[in-house]
Structures are given as C-alpha cells and as structure tokens.
Amino acid sequence: MTKTLQGKVALVTGASKGIGAAIALKLAAEGAAVAVNYASGKDGADAVVAKITAAGGKAVAVHGNLAEPDDAAKLVGETVKALGKIDVLVNNAGVYEMLPLDAITPAHFHHQFNVNVLGLLLVTQAAARHFNDGGSIVNISSGASTLAMPNTAVYGATKASVDLITGVLAKELGPRRIRVNAVNPGMVVTEGVRAAGYDSGEMRKQIEAITPLGRVGEADEIAAVVAFLASDAASYVTGETLHVTGGLK
C-alpha cells in the first residue's frame, strides 16, 4: 500500500510526548521524514526518533523552546538543514493552565499566549519561508476554543485565536498552495493530563458524561486526523477547524 506522505518532510512542534509524539510517529509511518521538536524533553524526543528509525523511517530531534521568540527560526533552520525543505508543519506545542477569573495574573496570561499564539505564529512564519511548492500546515487547537468551560478564559482564548489564525493564514497562503487547517481535540489522556490529575478526577467524569461517544480520546485518534489533513487526500481542504471531540460541542 502506498504511503500517503512518502518523500515528504514534516516538522512537528512539541513532539517529545503525548499528542505530538503520536503525530510524529503517524506521519513517519506514512513515509514522511520527521523533525521531532522538543523544548525540555530531549529524552522523550530521542525515544520518538529511535522508534521511527527502528521502523525504517527517518527522523531527527530538534530543540526549540517556543516561549523564546528567537527559537522559532532556529528550529526551522535546523530542520531544513537536516531534512530539506518542509512539506508539512504541525503546530502542536502548547501549554495549558486552568484558573478561575479571580486567580488570573499577567504571568498566567503571557505564558500561555507566548507559546500557544505567538510561538505558533513565529514558527509558521519561519517555516513558510522554507516550504516546498505547496504543502500543509495543521494547527492543534482545542475543543476548549468553543466550549467556553469554566476556568478556561485564558487557555480557551489562546485556542480561539488559533482557530482564527487558521482561517486567516489559509487565505494568505492559499495562493502558494499551502493549506492551513486546525484539529481541535477533546480531552485526551496524555502525560500532561495525568500530571495535572485530570485523568482520574471529576473533570474527566464530567467530560465523559456530556460526550456523545461517552469516553475521552486517544492520542492516536488525533494523529490519524492530522495525517489525513497533511496528505493529498485533503487536497481541497483548507481553513477548516475539525473538532475531534467524540461529538462534544
């Protein structure tokens, strides 16, 4: 069976664990050479690279902390140097912290906007300058961008920004045949979710209770949708936000 991304080069930000790691593995399985970006989790990124190479694929680990504006161009430059021009960019790197209105501080606000919005814009800006003829950008947004759940004023606002940016850049980059779409996951049990204690507490029970499919998602289910949007099977799809939330809206 033909691999859908054979011969392509993909950069996945925040790919040392969780959804990002699953995306990197899936794109590699579809034939892409993958740059696995990490901010602090070098061991995790190296493990993802090792899995890809063990399966006969090609991958490199690329450091870059998207909270640092100068790192965006650096990580894109290292990707191009190692693998060649970029065909697929997945903006997965992100941070989240849930706080009620009374607890919001400037630090809470800027930490999330600097990574989730500014970091995404700067990486996309740098990568767009090194794209092949056409390609695909997939932004990992969140169901939180539209659910308006309590305690998500700042995080949800960053992801609502990502949704808007997706539509704007689809129009800006369309003439270059670069498609831009967003995938908005529901709750997915990852290392970060476990560390925050959300995987076994009241939040998970509440979400499962109002999700039509009655369960949380898995990282591989998000990765499969990203791989579709990255491929030529989605060649006429751009400017879309695809909610992968088990029907929760």
From TrEMBL:
Matching Pfam families: adh_short_C2 (PF13561)
UniProt KW keywords: Oxidoreductase
Source organism per UniProt: Rhodopseudomonas pentothenatexigens
Protein name: 3-oxoacyl-[acyl-carrier protein] reductase
Claim: Magnesium is one of the keywords in the record: no
InterPro entries registered for this protein in UniProt: NAD(P)-bd_dom_sf (IPR036291), Sc_DH/Rdtase_CS (IPR020904), SDR_fam (IPR002347)
An example molecular function term from Gene Ontology annotations: oxidoreductase activity
Keyword Oxidoreductase: yes
Family: Belongs to the short-chain dehydrogenases/reductases (SDR) family.
